[in-house]
Design a protein that fits this description.
Elements lengths: L1 H37 L9 H12 L20 H13 L2 H26 L4 H18 L10 H21 L4 H11 L7 H13 L1 H26 L2 H6 L7 H6 L8 H13 L4 H21 L10 H17 L11 H17 L5 H7 L1 H23 L4 E2 L3 H7 L7 H9 L7 H7 L4 E2 L9
Parallel strand pairs: 1-2
Helix pairs in contact: 1-5, 1-15, 1-16, 2-3, 2-18, 3-4, 4-5, 4-6, 4-14, 5-14, 6-7, 7-9, 8-9, 8-13, 12-13, 12-14, 12-15, 13-14, 14-15, 16-17, 17-18
Amino acid sequence: MNSTLSQAGGNSSTRRVSIMIGCLALLTALAALWPVYRVFLNIEIDTNEGWNAYYADAAMGRMPLYPSAHQLIANNYPPLSFYIVGGLGRLIGDAVLAGRLLSLAAVLVIAGGVFRAVRLLGGDATSAGIGALFFGATMCRFFTSYVGMNDPHLLAQAVMTIGFVAFLQARSQDRGYALPILLMVGAGFIKHNLVVMPLTAMIWLGINRPRQMVKSALLATFAILLGFALCYLAFGPDFFTNLRSPRAYMLKHAIGAIGHLQWIAVGLAAWVYVGITRRADPNIRLCNLLNTLGLVMFFVQKTGDGVAYNAQFELVFGVSIATGLAFAHAPALPLARRWSGEKLQFILLLAICIRLLASARLEPVQLLMDPGFHAEITAREAAMSATVARLQDTPGDATCSSTLASYRSGKPFIVDPFYTREQILTGHLPPDVVTKRIDAGKLTVVKADPLLHW
């Protein structure tokens, strides 16, 4: 009798877990609706979009990719993303759309990387799927401003993820470390602030395979120096001048970023508990290293002025892997002595789903159910068109707060507001550097309709 009741209870727990997995998949799909739909709208998702589009065109020969020091613009990104986006943009006729589509594809690639990483670290297919869904849902729900936005960060992280997963594969076979190292170096030439995954790989090698770490470090150093040499040959000293563009740093930015951890709080808590209780497992120790470095680098990077949510993305990746592993290790956790492993899995999934629902972002629901929302979309697209028309009607050089509107108007890139502000803050430019040009009639500032930014 007791055996029958126990089996019935187990079947009930299994059904509850299956239902929650279905709920998580549904919430992920719902959260993705708005970023996917927005990709094709004529609005500005972020001021970076126009900036990246200008330099994608520059990579195709329309202006220098790395401007000279006397200009009020600078490009502090490595070159590869601009050639990738510019090439795809030339193919489809729109660099902005190209960048947005690559951003969406990158999220899928990274989610796939989470899946594969969980499998290589000992999780089953279901656990790997949980980790991948957690990543996709978290990105689409809480980091909407980056998913499907024309910016190279997610593209670089996708390549870095491929390299890191290749490292995990090499680790499992104890051979073939060269390709992962080269992939991660290549990702650094798309966006240069992704350091958590390569650091994790190097530290793990240093602890467990010291000789291999030395060989990998030498290979990485050679590849980086070769990349810099090629950039110098292609762009001259302006490449290094642009890359070293000054930026203000303030500790208060990092302190204020503590609240940003709320979006991954459930996965973070799961990682801390599993990371401590299951630390004897070498796969868990590697995950602990990845997430510890992710936390540290998140706060270090957030000290920089103008550093946005993307500083957290490597941590989101690591926590997503940890979430999948937490699901896999649930039956072996100390809490499983009081509750079954399936109950712990159910609680984890329930907490994830509740956190995903606890957000004021209602765009996916509005997109499906609110006619007024579609009217707002039309109004915002009209605001972009009107601002572009005003810029086109302005004779001579003109700029506005929307770099995308400036780009769409065909006006040359004259003033980078963020770069100019940082130059002024760090004492490299006088405070009136822009107003002098305006007063001299060399530059006109056109007011952008605030509705165009969404």
